[in-house]
Automatic annotation (TrEMBL):
A molecular function GO annotation: arylsulfatase activity
Required cofactor names: Ca(2+)
Membrane-spanning parts: none
Keywords per UniProt: Calcium, Hydrolase, Metal-binding, Signal
PANTHER family hit by this protein: ARYLSULFATASE FAMILY MEMBER, ARYLSULFATASE G
Record family assignment: Belongs to the sulfatase family.
Record flagged with keyword Hydrolase: yes
InterPro entries in the record: Alkaline_phosphatase_core_sf, Sulfatase, Sulfatase_N
All residue ranges annotated as the Sulfatase N-terminal domain in the record: 8-329
Name of the protein: Sulfatase N-terminal domain-containing protein
Amino acid sequence: MSRDLNRPNVVLILADNLGWGELGCYGGGVLRGAATPRIDKLATEGLLLHNFNVESDCVPTRSALMTGRHPIRTGCRQSVPAGFPQGLTQWEKTLAECLKDNNYATAHHGKWHLGDIPGRYPSDRGFDEWFGIPRTTDETQFTSSLGYTPEVADLPYIMKGKSGEQSENVAVYDLEKRRLIDEMLVDQSKDWLSRQVNEEKAFFLYHPLVHLHFPTLPHQSFAGSTAQGDFADSMAEMDYRVGQLIDHIDNLGIRDNTILIFASDNGPEFRPPYRGTAGPWSGTYHTAMEGSLRVPFIIRWPGQVPEASTSNDIVHVTDIFSTIASMTGSPVPLDRPIDGIDQTEFFKNPNAIKSSRTGFLFYIKEELRAIKWKDWKMHYVWEPKVNQSSGRLESPYLFNTVRDPKEESDILAFNTWVVQPMMKLKSEFDRSLKYDPAPPDPLKQF
């Protein structure tokens, strides 16, 4: 396949609940019980971000990634149980649909979590084909849970589908399949990549891994491999699966014309025994702490993104939508606010150019929890750990995330000037919400 910088291929690998501090290239690896040599090597082949930020949990982040819009706009504010309305509404335009409009082949192999009924599956939202799970992985525990019967809660399934056809069930997604799912997904992606290369068509592959979501259970080939338990074994497997995809891309001869991104959807799990770590940052997902917001991000694009580069500039998950669209020359919607910022030039020259983003607002469900601006973070609600909220603060807490990474010392009284640029961010966003009102929370219908 010839190298066409105007139509590069895109492979986007998204880990599930992978905290900032788990990988070797982020200070974890063997310190967390499992070396991650393949992802660590990938980090030396491109740009590693220290300050890549996401939304509060799986659904909000995935909706922001697919639409370039904060979930307060799209209504995808939280993960909801099976059987409740969920997913992107028909009027949202996905990244896959934008690339499809640009004649890209598209596929989704992995965890979707943006719709579990006809009309909202990946094959209905711009992907030529898909294979994976429509919702999430804790459902694998259903069939082994005390008192469970399919009459009271639907069985979870691994599914597949193609554009223009009805999606269908492949197998019950139980604990046995939980151990096998990431191997199955890699096999699907390798087969699809080979087909696209044979057809010489530019492509977009979205591969949302299932690891490290709870129950964090490894494939039998990795069980016991680290002698540090299921979580470490699963991390070793995750690194291996990413390596399989990297090797396949390289062996197909498309390395130089493929943008490869590896990232996580949110901070680490807080529930034992699957609790993860965010390294130097406090908190887990479902909070507004840095450990929730900051996650791993690596991008490789040979000849375009410099090797062995790092940056602590702020980038947000919505930016990935705008940046991939820009890199591929794909159109984005002009009839709605897009929160994502095109970071193409920053990614290409991070040593000389700053990120185009200075900050963002962070919501959990409908509530503004924090504002992040440059090296500063202001909390309106204090919840350092899940289910330990002290409620809305009469006087917000302000932290400097460089000098105080664990957000322990409120310094608002000495730095009230910071409120001004933060309030400008808030007022601009509030004005845009006025003309682009958020849809109602679907759970309030019940």
